[in-house]
Structure formats: structure tokens, C-alpha cells
Amino acid sequence: MSAGKKADIQTQMAVVAHYATTGNSVETGKEFDISHTTVLAYVARQPEMYELAQQIVKTKVLTALDAFVLECMIGPGGVLDDPDKIKKAGLRDIMVSFGIAVDKARQIKGEATVRVAIDVSPQVMAASDVILEALSKLPKDALDEIVDADFEIIEDDLPDTSSPPAGPTANLPALTSL
To answer: Which of 15, 66, 81, 172 has its CA at 20 to 30 Å from residue 51's CA atom?
Structure first.
């Protein structure tokens, strides 16, 4: 497209959809023969179209991942249904592929891909229960004083950040002077 010529709305929407698919304004610009800044301008002008295109891309990717898991992994004739395929690929590699597919699907859906469990000893749990019970019996004014006192202690313990630290970074210019 020549410089200064404005694209019609269909072309702009196609640009936005392509950008939503690739996530790359330079690649999209080359595809439509426009600058990458023009691509970003179209995206900024069409936020609803961009969101819709992203949802369509997510749906297509999730559908493909579901098909991979169902057809290739666990479905009839899938890898896990055929002992020869398991021998050839190795169960470890098959399960890694399955795990990656599930992890990517969870990531696309915005779900957690890592779960962290904290193991707390029974003694710590018992002590925290006793502390919580004692705190629940205090009047609100006393709780406010405890909270305020804790913050005062924390503020008093903070290092002084008003002057730059001495050491290897001492000769670097301050951010305000850049």
C-alpha cells in the first residue's frame, strides 16, 4: 500500500486479525505492505476486533490441542492404544508430549500451570491457631495499635535510600540525569 493512502475497514480488520494471530507487527506489516507502526495504529483503533481475533485464535489452538490429546494420545489408534508406538517413542517421551499439551491448554485458558504446596509443621499450625485465637479476643483499638506498631518498626528498619550506594555502581549516572 502506498504511503499516505488509508486502507478500507476490511483491510484494517484483516491487519488486526493477522496481528492477533502472529503477535508480530513487523511480520504483519510485511504481509500487508504497511509499516509496523501502522499495524499498531490499526490495532489501537480496533481493540474489540483485536480481542475477538485473539479469542478465535485461542479457541483454534485449544481445539487443536484437544484433538492432539484425544486422537493422537488416548483415542482409538492413538499412541497409548498401540504397544508398538509406545516402544518406538518411549513412554517417557509420550507422557512429556501429553504434559506439554495439557500445560499449554491450561496456559491459554489462563489457569495455573504450577501448583505450590506449603508444608507447615503441626507445631506451627498449633501456634498460629493460639495466636489467632488470642488476637480475636482483643478489642479493635488494641489490634489497631498492634498493626500501627508493626508498621513503625518496619519503617524504622528500612535502609536509607536517599543517597546512592557506594561501590561498583557509584560512578553510574543517576536515572534522573539521563
So the answer is: 66
The pLDDT tens digits for 16-30 are 988 988 889 999 999
Q: Mean per-residue pLDDT for 130-150?
A: 71
Asked if 79 and 85 count as a contact pair (C-beta separation under 8 A), the reply is: yes
Cell numbers placing 106 = 491450561
Total residues found in the chain within this entry: 178
Query: Residue written as cell 513503625?
Result: 152
The model's pLDDT over 43-60, given as tens digits with 9 standing for 90+, comes to 999 888 888 888 888 888
Where b means 16+ CB within 10 Å and e means fewer, 73-112 reads: beeeebbeeeeeeeeeeeeeebeebbeebeebbeeeeeee
Full DSSP string of 67-115: HIIIIIIISTTSGGG-HHHHHHH-HHHHHHHHHHHHHHHHHHHT--S--
Compare 130 and 43 and report the one with higher pLDDT: 43
Run of H or E including 59: helix 47-67
Q: pTM for the complete prediction? A: 0.42
